[in-house]
Amino acid sequence: MIPRAQPLNPSRGTVVVGVSFAISAVCFGQSPAGPVVVWGSNGGQLSLAPSSLSGVARLVLGNECSVAMKTDGSVIGWGTLYAQPLVIPPDLGVCIDVAAGWTHIVAIQASGTVVAWGSNIYGVTTVPTDIGSCVRVDAQAFNNVAIRTDGSLVRWGTSSGSQVVPSVHPPCVRAAAGVNLIVALQTDGKVLQVGNPSSPPPANLGVCLDVAAGYSYALALQADGTVVGWGSWDYLPAMPTNLGPCSEIDAEYFVCRAIRSTGMYTSWGTAGPPGIPGAPTASVAGATLCSGPNNAGVVRSDGTVLLWGYDGAHLTTPPPEMGLCRAVSAGWFHTLALDEDGTVFGWGRDSAPSNQMGQEVVPADLGPCIQVSAGEFHSLALTSAGEVFTWGNQFEGIPDIPANLGPCAKISAGGWHSLAMRTDGTVVGWGSNGYGQRAVPATLGACTAIDAGKVHSSALKPDGSVVVWGAHSPGVPAGLNGCVQIAAGGDNWNGNTVALKADGSVIAFGSNAWGQSTVPPDLGPCVAVEAGLRVGAAIRSDGVVVSWGEDVSRLPLLTPGNPLRPTLLSIGTFHAIAIHANSCPSDLNRDWSTGGQDLATLLAAWGSSPGAGGADMNNDGTVDGNDLAALLSGWGECSPDWTPNY
Fold it and tell me: CB 391: neighbour CB atoms within 10 A?
């Protein structure tokens, strides 16, 4: 029996491979509470397909992007690829297939030529020179597989298992890439597997119509509609007992999806059932499944698309009930904020629907706090009594707050570890220690500030010197002193640190592979610094935010003339968050205090065009006594009476 002819199911994406950092917001001097502004990636907006999208032949859902190949062979896309806006090569031309891995896209042009773009980590975009003409392609993580016109297979990239394709094998009509294996459907309906040799296909597997692959497991759709799964037991999702015959299957990472013969969609694994939000309840018979790590969809027979799931992480959408804030902290896919009353707010989402850790879900009984810090997949909060609370990630000792910690003055959440500074200035670390990041040096002594990066930690001494430990190379520059603030960033392999000196100058050191330790020579005096995944940033004394390093292009930072004047800044992996004080009706000259200069500013602009010089305070389009009343009624309300706990 020859399997039915069908288009390739879209490639399977999975959780982002780019690593995270989590740095608490920091500020120099005093700063009033204020509204929050957030910018940067909103999670790729994976499910937000263009309104005019139609005539789709193939749809692939990547980690933070979506790519559609239309019936005319043209390719369009939206979202972000490797933390940058997705760009389709202008000379791509007509295509016959597309696929998406973690950080890259692969396409086959009408000529059979394979084209790949995005990050080239592990050589995923270096197409083999002898690949020849191909007709189908699939990708997952850093693993690519293509079918040549003669039905032979070729793979490139890397994985955790041996995946040397046999030099001789029957022709294949379908191939699916998993994280550490590939499966292919031969023309006779039999399944060929490459990789994961300890879990081969079942010996009694019958003639099949389709195959799919996830993380160290595979699925096959048999001719009678039954679905069979095999692979490593700790990764293979348990098959539903009531699944019944199916017409479509798909898999990515730890999640399996299918369309039953009745036309109903279903999913199982660590993201279902019922699966991610918004899954269709009506029949989708005749549609082709497409799976992403955070959403899913179908391409209907008429070429229209139905997508559901998460429209990104909603990182840049603070809760509507949150008022003025005193502190903010950005993690990987979540954000924490502390309002004037000490109430903690969290928003965003977990790393993936299949990996619910709850780092953005603030405990109901937490009570008033004075500091928050967002880690990669965990959160920290510090109460006014000096007690430390944590929630979210339960692995690597992250929740194991030392029993003898005692009252603390400051906290900082890193990648998979945490730091706390006691009221006497001594520092304690707990959590992951793969790079020595939580192993506080015995000679450290009392400190005035701490900051935890992804794989390293930093501390500021009373004399203004800086100490770092963990994966941080090179170390602290000789003679560095006079520092008043530090920020720790970095990725999975190495860390970098940014320090602010008392004179407003900024020093960055550590890993510089992405330019994150190369401070712009014309930066000028600054009042706050921050560090991210592969980026450094500072708030200049004029209120302008400046960043440097790899991630600058994806953070549309504040520019001169922008009415927002940030006073606290925190950068997450995909977004930035800041507190600004521009809404204070008394602080007209934005010097972070209220006094006679504000009244002088108002009177100097009196009678001028509405809004000039801040005269139109009530924004009614006129300048009159009501504006003066607004100033006087709010006099002193935004005075800097609170010092951030950083």
Answer: 20
